[in-house]
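Chains adopt folds. We examine one example:
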Amino acid sequence: MYKKYTDEELVELLKQGKDRAFDELYFRYRDVLVRFVYQRMKSIPISEEIVQEVFTTIWERRKTLIIQKKFSAYMYTSVRYVTLDYIRSNMVNDQYIKEVSDRNSSLQESDNTTEESIYHDELQEALDKATSLLPKKAKEVFILSRFKQYSNKEIAEELNVSHETVKYHISYALKFMRLYLGDFN
């Protein structure tokens, strides 16, 4: 029924509460946007998650949605920004994992495993202490993000907070950790 409508007409119908208009937009753009994100992320699940996040935002803001350009341009721009946010938020995590992995590899190859083991234990103890010193909400977000590997979206849903709040707490926690664990660099 909605296939004959233009994107802009579907957006207007969506604002009026016609959820079938949303379904039509979703089916028109989902696959092409997943392929677009995949070119950068090289992961189908992550690409699907990013596209789903954009569509979820559109659904949540459907009544107040303002699109000043073509819907397709709006979607590509939105997906690009969410992809960049995802990359930024996971870059620090990936770097940390690489450093720990490198240290563990060198620990296994090291001639002086006792010294490396002591260093590892001290670092773990300092990390636990620093984590315990974080404010309650920042600590919850940090643990879910860095130790349990939750995505920002999953953390927001788990703690019933906004995506921006999650990003703020992660940023705060990482700055705190850098300062507190400065001696280990």
